[in-house]
Every structure is written in structure tokens, then in C-alpha cells.
Amino acid sequence: MKNILFLTRADSTSITRYLMIAAELEALDVASKFVCMTSGAREMLARQSGHYHVATPHTYIQYGEENDPGLASHHAERNDHSVASLFLPRNTKLNFGQSVGLDQLLDALGFDLREAVRQLAFPHIGYSVNLLNKAAQVLEQETPCGIIYDIHGFPPVLSFLLEARNRRIPTFSLQHASGDSVQYSSLPVVADYYFAYSRHNQEVLRSMGIDESAIFLTGAPGDAFVHSQGDFITLRDKFRAARKVGDEQKLMSLALKPCYEPEFQSMRKANFELIDTVGKLATECSDWLVYLRRHPRDKMWRDTDLERLANSFKGKVHFDSNDSPIEELLLASDYFVTFQSACIPQAIECQVQTCVVAQNDGAVWPNWQKHGAYKTIELSNAEKFFRDIMSRHNACPKISKEHRDNFLSEFSTHPSPANAKRIAAIIALRAC
């Protein structure tokens, strides 16, 4: 039986899509093996596998920075050196206003170029060689007919893609999220085939010079899970009941930004401010419940301060499980709130009234707001905006069907159960 390798990180969105495609590949007599590249990936795969019907048990291959001490040690080596060691005592002096070349300037500063190369370049070289050797070992052992990934700006993934190209193993790029396409244009073209989840994403890939024959407009595989289960009204009742939302109650859901890594601390602060604002309002309005959805990258990480804040609102604020597709929460909600996020198209597909909190996270997102398919507010105005919604029944600002349809026409394609099957068929045809 031929096999495909999925390059897997601990990201619930990625894993959901991988598992859906793996189920369809199995029906085509292609086995799936998951190369676990970060800590928590294997545990997340095991928990989420229960949602998808795969007869053959998954094969996990341990690999990655956090799983392999030998790889992690290179990070430690790079960070152990002092910047001061790059400068040596010098007697050379420069006069103010003197015109000098770069070599003279470095000499006067005492910058030791040889030491800089030894400290900064050598660890990177060793780290990269180690990654490439490990990727080569896995490919030699598993002999896959293809490789699937969704983010390549990650050294272990790049090592696999390079080795795959050397061995003429076809590679397939799934888009990590609906909004990542804008950032693709600044990245090198490294895959043999690309899947586009919307006409917008297709145009971005074309603009990068990717051949038309290598781009497949399929829609996101994640769309299929909810759409395959029934009509929205039936699903809404089912998912509300699972969250203990009463007939007379309303549900507001909040999708949080990642905050477990140091560079996300500004977003962590924004999460706290938004939860505090909405939680206080919910305690004043007896008919509203609030459900919080952690970012997929925070799935394996608990923020006790965040949980303590949520628990302070007298049972009105709860955490939703990241093990279930976010569409379940969206369909259960009367109103959905998020920062700039790839779940915005999913919310519009699920026809839930949506508000986006404007907060600069440094990422480049598509111009989603141009169709007027959702409301946009500043965090500083959140208290007044949500008070107006919660204090009156049926006060959620409605978005017209025309605006929603225009948005979906550009930013979403084929939200049907056929997405994962279509992607699997293309992969099986071109790889196996």
C-alpha cells in the first residue's frame, strides 16, 4: 500500500484538515503517515482522530525541534553566546567627520568578523545539516509517494521539501488558513502543487508565477465536516443543546488570538480586555452566555490567569473545546466576535452575525471588509457596542444576504462535503 506523509504541527485547524484528507485517501488505498514536528502534535492527532472514520490506525513518526533533543540543542548553542564577545580591544581611533570605509569602521569598533561567523553562522549550518539528515532518514525509511504540508516557513518542513525535491517526491501545499494567501507572495515557490481555497487565493498564487496546471481551486477541506451533517437549523439546535444554551438564552462566542509565545503578549492583553468587557456585560444580562474559543496554536497550553478571569463571571463565561470543529460553535452562536483571523470566512459561511475587533497583530490579511459582510469595531469602543447588543433582544446588527454572497464569491469556494474528497483524488492521481 502506498503512503503519503503529512508534515504535522500542533495546530488543530491543520490537523482537522489533514484527518479529513487522510480518510479520503484511505478510500483510495493510500495510507497516511503523520510526521510530528512539534511537541503536542501526536496527542492532538490522537484526540481529534475520533471525529473522522479511518479504519487503519494512524502511523506517527517522531521528528522536530521539540521532540528531538539533538535538534533542540542547536537552538541552545545559538543563544549561549554574548554579543560582547564579538568585539575586541582596538587602538584604532577615528576622528569625527572622517570619511572611512566599512573595513576601517569595523576595525575601529573592534568587531571580530571571524568570531561572528563562528558564533552566528556555524550553529545555523550545523542545525540545518542536522535537519536535512533527519529528513533524509525519514524519506529513505518511509519511501512516500508524496508529501503534504500547510506552512513552509518552518525549518523542519523546509528540510523535508528540499529532500523531497532531490528525490523527485511530489509535494502538495495546503493553505494553512483562508487568510494566509496574502503572505504567500513574499515566500518562495517550493511545492509542486498548490490548493486554493477561494478565487482570491487562486489569484494570489497565479501572481506568484505558479503555473496554472499546478493550482487547484478546491475550497478548504475543513468546510466539509459541518456541511455534511445536515441543515443549519437542525445543527444549530444540536450544538446549542450540547453547550446547555436554553431556549430563551442567547450565545455570544469569542475567538481569541494566540498568546502562549512571548511575541504574542500584546494579543494576550487584548484577549483579557475583550473577555473582561464581554464577561461583565453578560453578568448584567441574564439571557446571554459567552463561549471562548482558544486559538489553535494555544490548544496544548493552559493560561491559568485567563481561566481565572473567565471563572469570575458567575458561570456566564465558558471555554469551548478545541477538539470539535469551530463551525459547531459558530452555528450555535447568535453573535460571533473575533480579531482579524482566518475563521472570518468560516463565520460568514455559517451565516452567523459577526464582529471583528480591529487590532494590529503584524500579519497581512486580505481586504475582507470591502464587501461589508461583518461589523468592525475598535477595542476601545467594545463596551458600548456590546452593551447595545446585549441590552436588547434581537438587536444584533444584521448583514444583508447580498453582502454575504459577495464576500463568499471572492473568499470562499465550494463549501461542500466534496472538498476533502476532491483534494485526495488530486493527490492520489499525481503522487501515487
Radius of gyration: 25 Å
- Strands, count: 13
- Could you name the ranges where pLDDT drops below 50 across 5 or more consecutive residues? 65-84
Major sheet description? 7 strands, parallel
Distance between the termini: 10 Å
Q: Structural class, judged by helices and strands?
A: alpha/beta
Strand order of the largest sheet: 3-2-1-4-5-6-7
Helix content: 40-55%
Task: Please identify the oligomeric state.
Answer: single chain
Helical region count? 17
What fraction strand?
5-15%
Mean pLDDT: 80
Helix and strand string, N-terminal first?
EHEHEHHHEHEHEHEHHEHEHEHEHEEHHH
Approximate shape: globular
Q: How is the secondary structure organized here?
A:
Elements (H helix, E strand, L loop, with lengths): L1 E7 L3 H16 L2 E7 L4 H8 L10 E4 L6 H11 L22 H8 L3 H30 L3 E4 L5 H12 L4 E3 L7 H4 L8 E4 L2 H9 L7 E3 L6 H4 L4 H11 L7 E6 L9 H20 L3 E6 L10 H8 L5 E3 L6 H7 L2 E5 L3 H7 L4 E5 L16 E4 L3 H9 L10 H11 L6 H14 L1
Parallel strand pairs: 1-2, 1-4, 2-3, 4-5, 5-6, 6-7, 8-9, 8-11, 9-10, 11-12, 12-13
